[in-house]
Amino acid sequence: MANQDFMRFSLGVYTREQTQAVLDKILSWNRAGLPSQFAVVIQTGGKLIGYCGFFHQVVDEKNEIEIGYRLHPNYWNQGLITEAAGAVRDHAFRDLKLPRVISLIHPENIASRRVAEKIGMALEKQTIYRGFPTNVFSLSREQWLQEHVA
Ligand SMILES: CC(C)(COP(=O)(O)OP(=O)(O)OC[C@H]1O[C@@H](n2cnc3c(N)ncnc32)[C@H](O)[C@@H]1OP(=O)(O)O)[C@@H](O)C(=O)NCCC(=O)NCCS
Question: What domains does the chain contain, in order, with CATH numbers?
């Protein structure tokens, strides 16, 4: 999280203390049995290269579960986060039985938008989130079931 590209489309890089605070929050969700983040690990060699999983958000005064992701720039554009986010989406609906998931995406973040679209999400609305214009992508359990019941 000290890497500028890893932290693109956020408020900037994090200090070690800020990073620790994020990790503590994620681990507290794990301990409470709530949806949380996963490490993204390259299968060959086991190197940690990013994260992909769930965040708890309040958007337009509504509690939402977001699928969020970041990847080390050396690994961009190889389809890795599409693979990870697709697995997280299936976990959300198949195992956790969530009613819906969203992704909060900066209007200029084309790569993130593509990932959201490739895992079946569609633009639901534009809003102001934490003071910034934000695109809300979403996918409902019903929409997912239509694609996954065969
Ligand atoms: C967003 C991010 C996680 C994507 O990870 P990734 O593993 O590179 O994603 P994928 O390879 O699965 O898919 C990326 C898609 O965006 C496309 N893309 C990337 N940059 C693009 C650009 N400048 N213009 C058009 N398309 C672009 C790729 O071509 C690919 O789409 P395709 O399969 O249709 O060709 C990664 O870029 C990242 O970590 N960015 C910084 C942090 C961030 O923005 N996180 C999301 C916050 S909402």
Answer: 16-148 (3.40.630.30)
